[in-house]
Protein 1
Amino acid sequence: MPFNQERFINHKSELYRGVDHRPMMGGFTRHQPDSHIYVNRRNTMKSSLDSSNSSLQPKSPAELLKKLTYATPETAPFVPGRRAFFKYRELGLTDATEGQVRAQVTMATGVMQQTGWHYHICDVHFIYTLRGWIDLQFEDGRTIRVGAGESLFIPPGLKHNETAISEDLELFEMSVPAKMETVPCNPPEGIGKFA
């Protein structure tokens, strides 16, 4: 093996688990897939997802062109989503980034049902309202209406409840990673279930 070549650690090894101990927003620890952990010649762990060795940095123009993603209303498919009263248009980033980023347009389809209190397990959850508005209540009791031209970043683990939307709501939504987990939870102390 050449001197500078890294060797892959067996993905079943209990000694080298895929944990990145750098703190993230919300106090979570990032767990990386075992298949992305390597040990270099000095026996120090390194993640293939680090920016210095990222799978998002292809090495040739041909690889870059494979990741080029262009979406139009005609080519971006509707996909199943978290809520029945929304429809979701996938913009292609999930495939282009191998599941590291999701970008979609979320549109109202009818009468909203409150989501109930929940939080998300992710690194990033960002929305930008294109048309209409959405009301979200947060665990400190505050309600924020995010209208057209406004954005909102919801930190991981922050409890919230979507309480109302306009009939014409359309928003851009992005999450990192693409698969964002939604965890139902009890309402915060002093706030009603569907307040």
Protein 2
Amino acid sequence: TPTPIATAESREEAAGRAATPHLKHNADTEYSDMMVIWKDRRSTRIGEMKMITVLFSIVLACLLVHDTGASFAISSSKTPSQKSGFADKGSSNKGFGAKTPPKVLHTPDTSTEIQTLCQFLVSQKSVGIGDGTEVGYNLANGMRSMFATRAFKKNEIICKIPSDCALALADPTAETTEDLTIVQCAQNYLNFYVKNPTAAQTWAPYLDSLPTDRDSPHFSPTPDFYSSDEIAALEYPRAVKAVQTRLDEISKIADQSELSSEELQFASWIVSSRSFTIKISAPDEQMSEFVSKPAKKLPVLLPYLDMVNHDSENPNAELHLIDPEKDEAWFALRAK
């Protein structure tokens, strides 16, 4: 029986930390420039940017297997005696008091949108999509997630997608290091991909797999969608302030652009719930080797990998960027 996949830090936290330079594109060149960023690293110097920490604790919560009954530990504890997880059939850990992993039953998502997304990623040389992992619904809570369908050893790659398949929400080559807010990233998401006809067609397999409005079956409302009374009723003043600040920013950007408040609000939900943040160093040009180069934070959307859920207690997998200096870099889930 396969299993759901998740992260130790919430997407809200990850997206909230997203910080990248402001963009200097105009409406006619935004998408082509973003494609160049990922398709031609030599000209944009992405290939020369060294990735600094790209770790997001991802959990394959309760990994179960179709035919082996084996999997890897789901505990993040560094003390072996405190770890819990799934043992191989040959494990000697069968004595009194041995922990029995909870069984998580799921049903595969056989929708056309998910099947099309998987086919698209496989055509782009992604690995482990449909072969070792699949998207499904947790029968206990109805949540959609990524499930592993076989056992994975520690440090084994669970699945990976080429970095060309990542949707950047900012320009990593921009000189400024001013942070972008979630709403600004949402604005870029809409302008770069949703509203751009060429990009929308290119990324249709991914965009079609995402919730599109509040009536979508996979939409789970956050405080951004609460009424004024519901927001005021929140017990945490910082949460109330954060929500109100974001709503004010949505209204302001909507007034200054051709985007509606509703579009920006929903796009902000997409970004906050699905984006990852990676750190990249500044290019070496015009900088002394003795000068510390500041790192930029780049928010990205990662098709299929964003199906993982979060578990801050028991992460058993991590997100890595493999071979960032090479033309063929990969975003990969690695067993922990």
Protein 3
Amino acid sequence: LIGKTAAGAYFQGKIDQLEISSAAKSACEILNDAILTAYYSFDIGVLNLDLSNNFINGMSNSLSTISGIVNEAYLFNQTLSYFQSFAFTAYSTTEAFSVSLWIKPFSVSGGTLIHLSTGIDGGGTACFDLLGFSSIGQLIANMYNSYTPSGGMCPCYASTSIGGANTTINVWTHIVVTYGSTNGMAIYTNGTLTVANGAFNSFPTSASAFTTPPYMTVGNYKTTSSAPAGCLVATPALSPGSYYGIIDELRVYSRELAPSEICSLFNY
């Protein structure tokens, strides 16, 4: 009996995602249920499926499967290779998040790993590369940074970017990007913090451009032959483009992961 007692006292509110498990869950499993927004293993049989409790399944274009860091992975080797989903549905002003993925790049002279946009083509009223490479192979994380000018005529937004470690081709690398309004952005490479900045608020609250949940495009910044116009530019410079290499074990979380949690993901 769910929603009322035997005596007829009714629950006032909403209930969702009821699950009955045949075994006791560990503390780690319970935490995953609470904060894991989406998990894409890219394994054969569940290629585009979200294996979290949210079932935010994605779609792919011009991808093939290949041996991954865990079972299978997606191979990105064409100009319009990409994976796309709505896994950032919880992303809005000041809300924390983390993204974890394994990559094995064939080239690091530019390329987009994670692109967020309000338009399905990679453009729209708001768009930017969250994670990618500079032209010399440095990992760059990039976000909107909201501010109010002295005249107070908007909330406005500009770019806040951080540059992490350089990445080696043909080697598996684990990357985690975290964000929170208090700690700002951070990049972890192979379980180690490589760069972080200070506190800032991302998407401005009253900006209508950000009311639409963004598309998350993986391995590309576009889904058509035309490059999206008007997207946020990163400084230090991120070089948008098609990523060439392998991506595996993509996870999106609804809070900043702690260093110990990131270490556990690296030492899977």
